[in-house]
Amino acid sequence: MSNTFKALRAELESEELTIKITEIELENLPDGDTTVEVHYSSLNYKDGMAVNGNKARIMRNLPMSPGIDLAGIVSSTSNNNFKKGDEVIVTGWGLGETHSGGYSQIVRVNSDWLIKKPNNISLKHSMSVGTAGLTAMLSVIELEKSGITNSSGEIVVTGAAGGVGSLSIMLLNKLGYSITAVTGRMELEGYLKDLGANNIMSRDDLLAMSRPLNSGKWAGAIDTVGSTLLANVLSAIDYGGSVACCGNASGNDLPTTVLPFILRKIQLIGIDSVYCPRNLRNDAWKRLGELITPEEFESITNEVSLSEIEKPAKLILEGKIQGRTVVNIKDI
Ligand SMILES: NC(=O)c1ccc[n+]([C@@H]2O[C@H](COP(=O)([O-])OP(=O)(O)OC[C@H]3O[C@@H](n4cnc5c(N)ncnc54)[C@H](OP(=O)(O)O)[C@@H]3O)[C@@H](O)[C@H]2O)c1
Asked: Is the CB–ligand 1 distance for residue 246 below 6 Å?
């Protein structure tokens, strides 16, 4: 292995933030018991914030590389459960936030974070889903655990055209659910229907449903946006229904009342992909590979090289990305 590798590196030079592709020496890697040669990473909202001037201080340990997801091959490890050549996935655990991330040809990480890539999914396609797909799968699993089945009634998905929303629709459709997709981009109706949405609702129509309780329209929900949209979803969930709350694209607040909970026995379930336990992650990755075919992964994937990341990283902050962006790290 060469003593140097390339990475997108953020650092402070005379208090000025610079983010550029840099040649780095192996000895500058952070601590960790495992070294991984990264093949692919992905673009998530947090990565958009990191690449665009480290907004909201996503990267908290400069100098470091952004990238909250990676898929690659173990090149050395002191953990007996892994060996050189293993194909692995890392998402969460502070990767790209407190620990140097996946926009780097070589990373050194803690082996507790590694997931052995299931055989039914390729390295590239694991990043077609990445953190967004893991979050969507965990949301579906939690709805199932709460007792929702595809005969319970329709499921509503908010932020439908985003990464988590699109993948949630794809997974629910595979599992035979009827789905309403809520979007601010009605022009993407065709795309959402191709993913498997049965009905499309505009964000404005959901925002207008502002009563504490509306008639029960849906058996369950996957909400990626929070705030008023989540409150209005809660107001229209049928008796005994469940809502997986996994995102805050429109805000951190939740201006709701207790009525959906005490009059309709609604469950609001929190979803976290960052510190999610290993057994749940293994199950979720295996199911993602079972449910989505290679052709379907390809259909939602737009591949860019690390040197092309700037444009999609801007678009994701403007809410203009459709589907998922995979970042090819090997061929910078
Ligand atoms: N819990 C976890 O572990 C976890 C993991 C990953 C992501 N997340 C969170 O989940 C959310 C979605 O992530 P993502 O990767 O899917 O992001 P994304 O690709 O940027 O999609 C977000 C979508 O939310 C909608 N949206 C954006 N701004 C909005 C606003 N002001 N009001 C209402 N809707 C708005 C848009 O959908 P339309 O275009 O269809 O309107 C947008 O496409 C983010 O908040 C992210 O931080 C959480």
From this structure: yes
Nearest residue by C-alpha to atom 48 in ligand 1: 247
- pLDDT digits (tens), the chain, 332 positions: 789 999 999 999 888 999 999 999 999 999 999 999 999 999 999 999 999 999 999 999 999 999 999 999 999 999 999 999 999 999 999 999 999 999 999 999 999 999 999 999 999 999 999 999 999 999 999 999 999 999 999 999 999 999 999 999 999 999 999 999 999 999 999 999 999 999 999 999 999 999 999 999 999 999 999 999 999 999 999 999 999 999 999 999 999 999 999 999 999 999 999 999 999 999 999 999 999 999 999 988 999 999 999 999 999 999 888 889 999 999 88
Question: Pseudo-torsion of CA 29, 310, 52, 124, nearest 10°?
Answer: -50
Cβ–ligand 1 distance for 163 under 6 Å, the answer yes
Single-letter amino acid code for the residue at 248: N
247 lines ligand 1 (CB under 6 A): yes
Domain ranges of the chain: 4-117+300-328, 131-270
- Is the minimum distance from the CB of 159 to ligand 1 under 6 angstroms? yes
Give me the CATH code for the 131-270 domain, please. 3.40.50.720
Ligand 1 pocket mutation pick from 42, 44, 45, 233 by most atoms within 8 angstroms of CB: 45
- Cβ-in-10-Å burial (0-12, 13-18, 19+) of 23 comes to exposed
Q: How far is CA 268 from CA 113, 214, 215, 260, 290, in A?
A: 28, 17, 18, 10, 27
CA 249 to ligand 1 centroid distance, Å: 4
Strand-pair partners of 12: 17
Q: Does domain 4-117+300-328 have CATH number 3.90.180.10?
A: yes
